[in-house]
Every structure is written in structure tokens, then in C-alpha cells.
Amino acid sequence: MELFLKDIRNVNNANRHYAQKRKIISLLNKAENPLTIPGICKKVKLSIPTGTKLINELIETQIIVEVGKMETENGRRPSVYKVDPDYAYCIGVVILLKGISFSIFNLEMNEVYKFDNNDFILENTSKCLADVIAFIGNSISDSKIDLNKILGVGIGITGRINSQTGNSYNYFNFLESSLTSHLSEQLSVPVYIDNDTHVLGIAEQFFGEAKNVKNAFVVNLSRGLGLSIIANGEIVIGEQGFAGEFGHIQFAESDKLCLCGKRGCLGTEVSGYALEQNFKEQVQSGEISLLLNSKDISEIQYGDILKAAWEGDALSISLIHKMGFLIGKALGNMVNFLNPGIIIIGGKFVSAKEVLIDSIKSGMTHTALSLPLRSCELIFSSIGTDAAIKGAGAIVLCKLQLI
Amino acid sequence: MELFLKDIRNVNNANRHYAQKRKIISLLNKAENPLTIPGICKKVKLSIPTGTKLINELIETQIIVEVGKMETENGRRPSVYKVDPDYAYCIGVVILLKGISFSIFNLEMNEVYKFDNNDFILENTSKCLADVIAFIGNSISDSKIDLNKILGVGIGITGRINSQTGNSYNYFNFLESSLTSHLSEQLSVPVYIDNDTHVLGIAEQFFGEAKNVKNAFVVNLSRGLGLSIIANGEIVIGEQGFAGEFGHIQFAESDKLCLCGKRGCLGTEVSGYALEQNFKEQVQSGEISLLLNSKDISEIQYGDILKAAWEGDALSISLIHKMGFLIGKALGNMVNFLNPGIIIIGGKFVSAKEVLIDSIKSGMTHTALSLPLRSCELIFSSIGTDAAIKGAGAIVLCKLQLI
DNA sequence: TGGAGTTAATAAAAAAAATTATAAACTTGC
DNA sequence: GCAAGTTTATAATTTTTTTTATTAACTCCA
Fold it and tell me: Counting C-beta atoms within 10 Å of the first and last residue's C-beta, which end of chain A has fewer, N or C?
């Protein structure tokens, strides 16, 4: 069993059976229910004897277990098999500007351990990197899960990331080696990274509404604005892994200076940060809000505004509306560009769904051509606020081709 | 041999050897030079005895031929093999608003027959469709090439196309069945379609500068404005095949009404048509141009303006410059979105390369983030004006997985 | 010129996989 | 309650493929 775990971590295993074994595990992982030997063999295009052989070998290593017989209309009842969810684990970590989260998932991608630190503040310093390593290392030991059973750590981090080389360009960019190789070394576990938005896209692609769609957008609307693009059934990462910089598309109506140095970036008007700024501006120019009854203006964060909108605060609603219309226009443009079948709005703004949905839709009709728009569904993420961390964990299974 | 030709047309051939034979043919097609048996076996992951067996079978059907021995540093000299370019043919047809072109290519994608009709005018009528069918049918018989040797016809046509279903939405949209099935029936040859811009993208992907890049844009700047997107090494067609409607991205600076019914479409300011309009406007407002010496203003077409710019006409140059800057800005935005490694400018405007290149580049710096921009090359298509028709023909080989 | 080294192509042997056949487990209907 | 029909699972046989060995073709260098 130990042997197999070691082998399974090496995707380029020379033994050609490993590719087929991965296919079998991936098939079982993706299936809703346990599968039969004939069913598996048909899907992975193996004859029943060889398929049986491989499955028996997988059972011997204990990664696959028989879970009983299946009821059928007629004929002999087949045994059904599934992956033992606790054969191994993967870890998801999400590092945001404020806060770091850690979750361990079993092979069914159910969370078995969770630890957050909301006091964490991301800084591009070696002190902060050491904190991250300590946080992950301590969380692993606190979880009491055997390190040998951990397939890897998938990290979603803010900023521009090259997921293929494992380099981070905005944070922890002072290392000599890549961020992933440094982390892998320090933690003695394989580490994979991607940006926080791609991680959200992966979550939707494998566990959310984008599951059965070949072309999709997954919007990450939180404090920043990002987008994951799924085209031809695959997440588009681009030549250096920078695809999806939706926040820096020049599409804003004003000419505000963006942190990136350019003007007119969509993110300066559509993002949690922009919402806070707009709110403050409006209040200073005399607008009133229910929010001011409970909080001082300097303390108000975009989450408060989203909540206020839910509670009916007129100013909050109108600001979110305006934002929805604008992002809708931008999305409509991108619908012309890539003709997606579904757009999923994710991130913290999901809580403002009721206020946002119609304004986004109406924005989209202003820019999108009718034909591609007609067949593009707009929905809000249903896999909850923990989507990102699940996506981060899923990177590991993805890279090992177990999903 | 006849048998094999019939088999090769059926991509989903049950015989599992056909998939590997396709791989071998595709490998030989893509290679610059003839290949050796050991070389082929290594690439398609077959042992030498089985590889030899399949290659010998392909030689028996005459699709592959031995072309001599290869010079090596040491050891026995291997025989090298290539695809017999004249074993079969594919046809490319490009249907534009004005003009229809027909070319027959051999398996090396060299043109062996060509016929154009520049008097053709595309209309959405059954009369016009009948003309197209007659044109293709007559061209085939005029070429004297055996119909049995023709693998299929790939058509690139203006307008919105669903390349998977074979439906055309703007032209010939009155049929009960799909356009491809109607044409296949009438011509007794398999027919595949895509829009004129995708066809250009296919040409660049297989024969042009995008050959070795996984993420690329291919701009089709002619009378209209279109874009082919290559992401993760594949052309993105989108959910209904409408991806790449770059001309209808809302990014123009004015509010001109577009044919699509919207305002602000990029195509209203960046396209051959827009160039003609702008030229006329400028002349009417008093600007002068060398072009007016030789032609009446009502006769001037965008091709004339491109030519005039080449000859140094100040007005033409300034208009093309402005257009280049604007499309550059739009492309820069899309660079943020998809992080391509290369942008290829194709279409009739290639002739204005000298005037366009710097203005496009400077436009891009206004919108693109520096990191993705730095690694994105901008070039003009080098595969000439016949790129589109070669791409149309290549659809056939693409669909049959022979390339 | 002829042995050592190298690679290709073929032949022989061994291993692996696919068919086919058979047995087992089950439903249905007479 | 037992034959007929169905499907799974395993065993036996056949086919296919790979591995290994051998022969062939060639270079280099003493």
C-alpha cells in the first residue's frame, strides 16, 4: 500500500498500467455511485479480464473497496466498487490578503479537517512566508493525519501565478527557486499553486454547475475581481498562467487610477474595494444609509454594504445595482468573445444575488449579441463560500489525474 | 486501397488500429521530413514490431510510401517514409460577400487546382445556394480529379456558423436540414463548414506562426473584423461555435450604429468597411488625398486606401494609424483576458503592415498589463492571402484527424 | 582490413490481452 | 418448480503485442 501511494504521486510513472489505474480511480471518483466491473471496463476501454485484473490490484492496495452488490432487472448481480475515501487525503489552502484557510479533504473531496486564521495578513516578506509554512505545517500535525497519506497541498493565492512553473509574481517573489519547490521542501509534501480565482473555477468545473458545460466563465467577485475561463472543457491558464485578469480589462466608465498603474480598469468600479470607495464618496456627497446608524463610515467594509443591501438599504442597493450593470456589460462583451454556455458568479458577492442578478442580465443585453446571449445561462454559485478551498484541494487530484 | 479510403473517412471506425494509423499519418503529415520506423514508433508509443506491421499495412494501401534511406552518424541507415501526397485530396472553399474561391489540396496541403469567381455575390437565397453547389460541383469535375479520391470539402463562409452541427445562421439558413448535410447530399462528398475567420485561425495553427504556440489570437482584418482564439492548443469555438466575434465587442470610441443593432461595436471603427466610411467623412469635411486624383470618391474601396497608404498618402496613413491604435487597445484588453503567446494579424490589412504594426503595439501598451504583454509577440501573417482557403481545406484533414 | 561500436530490421520467444466458453446467480413465465 | 433468458465472473483458448535475441548495415579507428 505504501508503495502504491508513492507511485500514485508520480504522474509520469513508466509502468503503463498506472495510466489505466488512474483512469479507473478518476472514473470512480467522478461517478455519483459505485460502479460495476463491466461498467468500468466499458468506460476505460479494457476487456473484462484485464479490467478485473487491474481492479483487483487496486483492491489489494486498498485504494478501491467492494461495497456490495447492485440490484438489477435481471441477470447475476454485479459487485460494485468505489474508491476508499480515506485511503489518502489532499489539502487545500487559500491565502487571501486578509486571512488564510486550511482544509483537509478525503478522496471524495469531503472536508475532514478545517482550520482558519482570519488574523493573517498577506505580505511579501520572508517573515510572512515563514508564517504560512508554519501555519500549514502546524495544521497538518494538529490534524493528526499521517503525512504519508497526504497526496499534496494545493494552494490558491491572490495575485498573478504561473501554475505550471509554480512561481508567484506578486507575493513571495523573492525566492531563488519557485514558490512550490520551496514549500514542497519545507513541508515534505508535494505543493501546487494557482491563483484564488482559478481555484474557484476548478471548484465549479468539478463540483459545481460548470460540471457538464464545455465553455464557462466563473467570476470571482469579492474584494477584487477575477475570472476563470473554461474553454473546450479545460481551464484556460494562458501562456504564463495569467489568463482571466478580468479586473484589469479596460471597461470602466470613469478614469480612476488602478493599482496596476492603468486607468479605466474594470476592477476600479467593480469589486468589493470599489464598492467601499463608492459608498464613502456617496455618503460624503450627502447620501444617507441605514448602515451609518450602526457603524462609523471608516469601519465599513464591502461585506457590510452587501448585508445592508439585503436588508433594504437604498444606497447600498443602488451602488450594487450600478456595479451589476457594469459587470454585466463587460461579461456581455466577453460572451461575444468566447460564447460560453454558462456564467457562474462566485465570490463574496453571491450574497447579493437578488440585487445583482437582474442588473447583470440587463447589462449583458447591452453588449452581447443575441445569438450567443440566448444560450448563455447566468447563475450564482451554489457550492458555497468554501468553493475556493475545495478547488485548491482539487488541484492536487487534478495534477495527479485522479479526478 | 479503395477500402482504406472509405475507412479513413469514418473517424469513429471501430477497428482500433485505425486510431493508431491516423496517428501515424498525422505524424508524417506534420513532420517536415520523412520519418523512420523507430522514430514513428517512439512518437506513437508502439513497439517496433507492431509499428512496423501497421506501417506495412499503410504501405500496402499505398497511402504511405518509402522514400529512401536516411543519412546517419553511425549504425545501419533506416528507411524513411512519408505520406503519398497524391493518395487523396481535400477541397477548400471560401465564400465571402463578394467572391467565391475553390482549391484542391493534396495531402501535403499543396494546392493542385484552383478556381476563383470574383463576380459571385453572396445572398441568402436558394438561387445563390444553387449557384454555390454548381460552382463547387463544376470545379470538381473541371479539375478531372477522381471524386473517390476526395476526402471532403471544407468551406469557410462569412457569418455566424455552428461548425459542429453544420448550421449557418446568416446565409443559407432556410434549409430544413443543416447546410453541411444538404451540401454533402448534393455534392456526394462529405462537407464541413466554419466561418471565414476560424478558417484563417486553422491555417495559422497548422501552417503558420501559431504552429508551436498553445495560446494565440489570429485577427482577420479585412472588410469585417473577426478573431480566432487558440487556447490550450485548440481553436475555441464556444458553445454554439460563435466564439471570436471580435467585431462586436463594445470598445469603439464613437457611438455609431452597427449592423448588429448595437452601438459601439469595435467593427464600426476597425474594419475595411469602417475605413471606407471614415475616408469619405474626412474627404467631405475637407481633407485631401492622393487617391482622389485617380478615383472618384464613390468608387474607393478599403483596398485602395491600404494601397494609398503604402504609397504615402497622408490621409490614408493617418486613418489606418488610428484604426491600428484602437484595435491595439482592444487586443491589449484581450491579452489580459487570455494571456496569449502570439497575436497574428491576418486578412487583407496585412498589406498595411508597416503602417499598422507600431500603432497596434502602442495601443496594446495602453490596456495590457505589462507581464502578459511582455511575453506576447505581435506579428503579421506570413502565409499569404490564400491562408483562408488553405485553412478551409485543412478542416477536412482536421476532422478526419489526419493532421 | 577487420574488430568495436552503433542503429535498423527481422525472427523467435515470452508475456499480455482479447475472445470465447463455461459456470454461477438471478428473473420471468409457463 | 423448472426451463429459458440475462448478466456477472471466471476459466480456457486464441490472438496480439512486447521483449529479447539475432542478423544486417554502417562508421570509426587502429
Answer: N
Question: Which residues have CB under 8 Å from A348's CB, separation 6+?
Answer: A221, A222, A223, A272, A302, A303, A306, A385
pLDDT above 90 covers a percentage of chain B that reads 85
3-state secondary structure of A376: coil
Å: B303 CA to D18 C1': 62
The C-alpha angle B23, B239, A349, rounded to 5 degrees, equals: 125
Tell me which amino acid residue B13 is: N
Q: Is the pLDDT of residue B4 over 90?
A: no
Separation between Cα atoms, residue B142 and residue B145, nearest integer Å: 8
**Residue A261 Ramachandran class (φ > 0 left, ψ -120 to 50 alpha, else beta):** left
In sequence order, the β-bridge partners of residue B218 are: B228, B344
DSSP tally for chain B: helices H, then strands E: 14, 15
In the predicted model, what is the mean pLDDT of chain A? Answer: 93
Summarised one tens digit per residue, pLDDT across range A71-115 is: 888 888 999 999 999 999 999 999 999 899 999 999 999 999 999
Whether A312 contacts A287, CB under 8 Å: no
Residue B173 DSSP symbol: T
Residues A189-210: tens digit of each pLDDT: 999 999 999 999 999 999 999 9
Percentage of residues in chain B with pLDDT exceeding 70? 99
Provide the positions of strand D that have an atom within 7 A of a protein CB: 5-12, 16-20, 24-28
B50 touches strand D (CB under 7 A): yes
Q: Residue A250: what residue type? A: Q
Residues 6 or more apart in contact with residue B285 via CB below 8 angstroms: none
The pLDDT value recorded for residue B1 is: 47
B42 touches strand D (CB under 7 A): no
- Average pLDDT of span A341-353: 96
Q: Which nucleotide is nearest to B52 (CA to C1')?
A: C9
Please answer yes or no on whether A372 and B244 come within 8 Å at the CB atom: no
pLDDT band for position B16 (cuts 50, 70, 90): low
Q: Which amino acid belongs to residue A174? A: F
- Asked if B381 and B148 count as a contact pair (C-beta separation under 8 A), the reply is no
Q: Among partner residues B232, B244, B369, which is closest to A248 by beta-carbon distance?
A: B369
Instruction: Report which residue is nearest nucleotide C18 when distances run from CA to C1'.
Output: A47
Asked if strand D contacts B214 at the CB level, meaning under 7 A, the answer is no
Residue that has been written with the C-alpha cell 497538518 in this structure: A140
Per-residue pLDDT reduced to its tens digit, A269-282: 999 999 999 999 99
Question: pLDDT tens digit string along B57-74?
Answer: 999 999 999 998 988 888
- C-alpha dihedral, B137 to B142 to B147 to B152, nearest 10°: -60
- The C-alpha angle B315, B317, B321, rounded to 5 degrees, equals 120
